[in-house]
Write a structure and sequence with these properties.
single chain; rod-shaped
């Protein structure tokens, strides 16, 4: 094989390799992005589950209120719906007893968040 033909084959191989590597990187990036989205979605659903668990029986007692108040900082910007974050903040500020109106708003927020995630 002559030097010129070898160089042409080597050039084609190099160009093909770069194209394949670029395509491979794109696939890896897409896969990583989908995995990240799935983790974010799972984390958001878990936060909704934790925030909504205390209200499932229709009321929030003082120990449940303390738990909800303790997670308020971690839920802001954590993928929860804005209305749920607002209710949780108001519950945290309400003291030792959660007003019935706030409990009702949390129940509604939980129902809406559950309906949207299905």
């Amino acid at each position: 094989m002559g030097k010129v033909k070898f160089r042409k084959v080597a050039s084609v191989f190099a160009i093909t390799s770069v194209a394949l590597l670029s395509a491979g990187c794109s696939v890896v990036e897409d896969t990583a992005s989908r995995a990240s989205d799935q983790l974010t979605d799972a984390a958001s659903k878990e936060l909704v589950r934790q925030a909504c668990a205390p209200i499932q029986d229709g009321t929030i007692n003082s120990s449940e209120l303390r738990v909800l108040s303790s997670i308020v900082g971690s839920v802001e910007g954590g993928g929860l719906p804005e209305d749920m974050v607002n209710v949780l903040n108001e519950l945290a500020d309400s003291g030792d007893k959660a007003p019935a109106a706030l409990q009702d708003r949390l129940k509604t927020s939980c129902d809406n968040a559950t309906a949207q995630s299905n």
